[in-house]
From TrEMBL:
GO cellular component: cytosol
Organism listed in the record: Fibrella rubiginis
Occurrences of domain NADPH-dependent FMN reductase-like (ranges): 7-152
PANTHER family associated with the record: CHROMATE REDUCTASE (PTHR30543), NAD(P)H-DEPENDENT FMN REDUCTASE LOT6 (PTHR30543:SF21)
GO molecular function, one term: oxidoreductase activity
Record-linked SUPFAM superfamilies: Flavoproteins
Record protein name field: NAD(P)H-dependent oxidoreductase
Length: 185
């Protein structure tokens, strides 16, 4: 018997109605049977990272509850999918902050990871991807083939309900979901 594969979705946007949150849902809707996505909702609860706020085993300092919740969500996941906007040619601080909270752990080590960078701009998203990939390399994540995707002009590829209407994008999202689940076996 094969067990259900747990995919953790992480949106780099906190915005209500975020296109990146909608893209996570679009991938979730297309996952192969036997895989389920849970979207993490606690990025906004994380403190700004600073090393002295991290648990200190020698002094017995406990892990902050919001940080513990984030780390447990990563640990439980067979694979992680980040979908993020581009902010000022990089990634939103809230996402970088969350990733910084994982640096002192081995939670992302060889963890299959998918990455979507979506922007309404004609050439948007590429700089967010270029900024994010080195951080994911530092965390030693494993990005399988077909699992990193820049989606420029994203609003032209969705309808008002957030359904992906562009056939090539829909196909790429299905492929990404299948590859990510395949890599987590
Ligand atoms: C502070 C800020 C900076 C932005 N910088 C960029 C940028 O550098 N490149 C880009 O393509 N879009 C940029 N955008 C536009 C975002 O890509 C756009 O708002 C996107 O829809 C946000 O994603 P969301 O719908 O998931 O919230 C920026 C938006 C904001 C609010």
């Amino acid at each position: 018997m094969t067990s259900t594969k747990a995919i953790l979705g992480v949106s780099g946007s906190l915005r209500q109605g975020s296109t990146n949150a909608l893209l996570l849902r679009a991938v979730a809707d297309r996952l192969p049977s036997g895989a389920v996505m849970t979207v993490f909702d606690g990025l906004d609860d994380l403190h700004h990272f600073s090393p002295e706020r991290d648990a200190d085993h020698e002094n017995g300092t406990a892990v902050l509850p919001a940080v513990a919740r984030w780390r447990e969500a990563i640990a439980r996941a067979d694979a992680v999918l980040i979908s993020t906007p581009e902010y000022a040619f990089g990634i939103p601080g809230v996402l970088k902050n969350a990733l910084d909270w994982a640096v002192s752990t081995i939670l992302f080590d060889r963890k299959p990871m998918g990455v979507l960078c979506a922007s309404p701009g004609f050439e948007g998203g590429h700089k967010a991807m270029a900024s994010l990939l080195p951080t994911l390399t530092a965390l030693n994540t494993h990005i399988p083939e077909g699992c990193s995707l820049v989606i420029s002009s994203v609003r032209k590829k969705m309808d008002n309900e957030g359904q992906v209407t562009d056939a090539a994008t829909a196909e790429a999202l299905s492929r990404l979901g299948a590859q990510l689940v395949g890599a987590s076996e």
